[in-house]
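Chapter summary example.
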Amino acid sequence: MSGESAEADRLFDVRDKTVAITGGSGVLGCAMAQRLARAGMHVAVLGRRPTACDTVVDAIRADGGEAVAVVCDVLERESLRTAVERITASLGPPDVLVNAAGGNRPEATTTAERSFFDLVPEDVAGVVDLNFLGTFLSCQAFGRGMAERGEGCIVNIASMAAVRPLTRVAAYGAAKAAVVNLTRWLAVHMATEYDPRIRVNAIAPGFFLTEQNRYLLTDAATGEMTPRGRAILAHTPAGRLGAPEDLVGTLRWLIGPGAAFVTGVVVPVDGGFSAYAGL
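The structure predicted for these 279 residues follows.
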């Protein structure tokens, strides 16, 4: 291996570190879990559905990786505490937390039949709780150990809806905007109150087809893009929706040695959507 190749490898070297991924059985979380396992990380796949988590873990193990499935509800502090204990016992103290649990729900989305004034508090609160409170509580649960050890890395998953308000998804956008604010606040807090080696960043994905947004982007009957989906593509210079694997390179950089001086940032992975003015 040449000197330059060895240096590049070192900058992205995440081998033998333990990562906990909330929402690890989802479309995006699954891709992250599998790719990080291939990079040599010990992966804990967290989710509410045991079978879904086991499926991801089985695929990782079949590929030669090390992983455990951990049933966990990110809205329950005791469930998170138990998850940290189980991961520590199985894989070692979590070095990295990826908060990929989140999503929208149709009931909290405006439509031609459901106006903004018809959205009910319970549905709005459900979206805010899953995306913001779940991230907040997970940062508390896993961040405590990082503070005690004086090192660690947290990567939150935000959204384009946090930085460019999008039509129809007021609750989801507000929740993800709160995740962005928390990311920046917590980066400063952990570095100044505990240790500068604890870093907190976020990734803001553009448009990726997931189970939570499929109803907005594709027609269930035909599989074709909806008018909203076509408008998104028209405003994405890359000309396509993101694939889950598109997030992995940025994630691996943020948790690796090459990003040791990077904290409190939100990195768009959006095919140019946030840069496009439409003119």
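To summarize the output: Residues 108 and 148 are 39 Å apart (CA to CA).
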